[in-house]
């Protein structure tokens, strides 16, 4: 794994020995899990179970139902719904795999459970600036997805032959979702992994169809509302934003995952290089940022919105009013984008 920690080889050697004997293992990913978090966790679970381990998956919050085709989707322990069971799964584990997050704050209250656990901790992630809380860290910020890293991790263990169609479907899900169907965040190894997963039996067309063509009428109506009534274009700076109010959430019956991908619609405009999707939640206002080319929205998110993520895809949140967050975004943009001369 490029850009991983210098002692990666020693880590792999130690984990090869450690994982040769059955263990109780718990896998956890970040709050509001996406396709990469779910695909990496479920793919790793299937692999570890093939080796004889007892494996549980814990997520801080519920997952979008669009991914319910993944094996063991309904076996995930959700902390928001089952506090005690989630804490017990982490507290009783011999080993905890932390996937697709770089800091314990990304798993909310479960971060303290992980921090004080005596279990062996393994971090596999591709976000910038990972916190040093794990015993073994596999961090590669150039990777397309954590699913790509899970594939590499299994290969480095010398057990690529265990990757079957089911594991492949999980890992390919993360490749699709974190690259926008291979439109961004790719590198040569991304396509190498995709090719190997297809050789393992993955039907990528069926996965693409399942993920990208499963909208309901309300999703298209919501998208139309966003583009027609909630989009503002800052043409002089090549930026655009869409906002949603709490009333919008009620009117369109917006559930978890329903707004996925809306922020990317603005980048389809040739002159727009930065897009923001700002949503009014019950107690907080969230912002999702996307960019093209060499523009770092990670810097915008970390400096101004208590967030972070990737260079071209980041997010944050503020305890402020919706109007204040919108105004702050408009105020910040001129410091990151040059004004376009008319």
Describe the structure.
The chain has 342 residues and is of the alpha/beta class. It folds into two domains: 8-212, Alpha-Beta Complex (inorganic pyrophosphatase (n-terminal core)); 218-335, Diaminopimelate Epimerase, Chain A, domain 1 (Roll). It contains 13 helices and twelve strands. It has a six-stranded parallel beta sheet with strand order 3-2-1-4-5-6, sandwiched between helices. The protein has a six-stranded mixed beta sheet with strand order 7-8-9-10-12-11.
Q: Helicity range of the residues?
A: 25-40%
> And the CATH topology of the largest domain?
inorganic pyrophosphatase (n-terminal core)
What is the count of β-strands? 12
Shape by Cα distribution = globular
Record keyword descriptors for this entry.
disordered N terminus, Diaminopimelate Epimerase, Chain A, domain 1, 342 residues, inorganic pyrophosphatase (n-terminal core), 2 domains, 6-stranded mixed beta sheet, alpha/beta
What would a concise description of this structure say?
This protein has 13 helices and 12 strands.
């Amino acid at each position: 794994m490029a850009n991983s920690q210098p002692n990666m080889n020693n880590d792999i050697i130690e984990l090869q020995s450690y994982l040769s004997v059955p263990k109780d293992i718990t896998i956890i990913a970040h709050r509001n899990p996406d396709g990469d978090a779910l695909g990496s966790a479920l793919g790793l679970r299937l692999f570890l179970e093939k080796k004889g381990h007892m494996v549980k998956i814990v997520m801080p919050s519920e997952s979008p139902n669009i991914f319910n085709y993944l094996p063991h989707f309904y076996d995930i322990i959700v902390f928001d719904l089952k506090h005690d069971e989630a804490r017990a799964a982490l507290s009783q584990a011999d080993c905890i795999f932390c996937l697709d997050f770089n800091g314990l704050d990304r798993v909310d209250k479960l971060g303290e459970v992980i921090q004080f656990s005596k279990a062996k901790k393994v971090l596999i992630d591709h976000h910038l600036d990972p916190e040093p809380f794990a015993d073994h860290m596999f961090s590669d910020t150039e990777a397309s997805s954590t699913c790509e890293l899970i594939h590499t991790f299994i290969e480095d263990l010398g057990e690529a032959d265990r990757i079957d169609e089911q594991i492949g479907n999980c890992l390919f899900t993360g490749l699709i979702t974190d690259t926008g169907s291979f439109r961004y965040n790719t590198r040569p190894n991304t396509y190498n992994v995709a090719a190997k997963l297809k050789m393992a039996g993955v039907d990528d067309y069926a996965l693409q169809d399942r993920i990208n063509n499963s909208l309901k009428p309300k999703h298209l109506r919501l998208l139309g509302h966003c583009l027609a009534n909630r989009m503002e274009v800052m043409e002089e700076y090549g930026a655009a934003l869409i906002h949603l109010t709490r009333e919008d959430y009620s009117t369109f019956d917006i559930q978890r995952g329903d707004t996925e991908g809306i922020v990317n619609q603005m980048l389809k405009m040739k002159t727009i290089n930065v897009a923001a999707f700002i949503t009014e939640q019950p107690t907080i206002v969230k912002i999702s940022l996307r960019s093209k080319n060499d523009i770092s929205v990670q810097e915008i998110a970390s400096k101004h919105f208590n967030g972070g993520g990737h260079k071209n895809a980041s997010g944050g949140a503020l305890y402020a009013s919706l109007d204040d967050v919108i105004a702050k975004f408009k105020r910040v943009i001129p410091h990151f984008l040059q004004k376009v001369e008319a």
